[in-house]
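Quick one, T. Sequence first:
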Amino acid sequence: MDDRLNLEIGVKSLSVDYSLDGYRDYDDYYRIEEGTGAFLPGYGPQSVGETYENNFLPMVGGVYDLNGTDQVFASYSQNYALPRGADDIFSIAATDPTTDPLPAPEGEESENYELGFRTNRPQFYGSAALFYTSFDNRLVAGSVINPATAQPEAYYISAGKTDAYGFELSGVYKPDVFGGKLYFDGNLTYNKTEVKDDTNVDGEGALDPTVDYLSGNGLPDSPEWLATGGITYEPTEWLVANVSGKYTGKRYAQFNDRYDMEAFTLLSAYLDLGGPNDFGIPENVSLRFNVDNLLDEEVPTAFVFAGSAFFRPLNPRTFQATLTVRF
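Structure tokens:
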């Protein structure tokens, strides 16, 4: 193909032996008898663990040069990972390990597909890509109320099989009219995530819409639309100024598309001073100023789930200065 096609083919292998030995939490030391409140001997030190292994994870990627500036690319890969939250799950001593051990969490698996186009020109770089990812045993964060502190405490739960698909557009534009001193960058992402299985926590067939994931719904805190953009001004080697914005689309704060979280946009800025100059300042000294949440927006940006939605406000307008000296 006239050396226009470049292929990369490989296989990954993952084998992780996970173990936790010793006392896990309070019940391994002492237990409290239900009804009487009497102290009983604990379960004692335990040895728990699991082996996570997948020795054949293929991946293939290809880039085809249409001409000197434009390319088409595609890729396929399989991934397997140690389950997130394994430390929390293995360290729980809520059941008698001799009669009712907690099942080991399953590893998270995925298949990933991507197809796209990119161009690299003197004034413009841009790319467009379509993607599709299919997860098995998708692990997502939830939480419960800790009775000792009355505060939410995070844990991970399986959402079963989950598909995610969408597209991404990104680019950088540096017009000649500004002499290369001013340039623009942007990124637009559409990501649709959908649960494919009905999952229930107790495994007895009764679906609880406040806890379980129901087929056809999305995942919490997973906006479909994300957009970022920025303007950078670089008039000299010793000064760089930037203003950027990020748009986060509407998403849901709870399982099964409940508790709407409205879309919001945030602005930030920075100023970098340092490098070659005519002022006699050593080139190994630099100073950076950052401003986050430039317009001091009041929006809820994070949540935890514990039977209901808990929202946290974004940090207010924040200033930061960093002095760096390199030796």
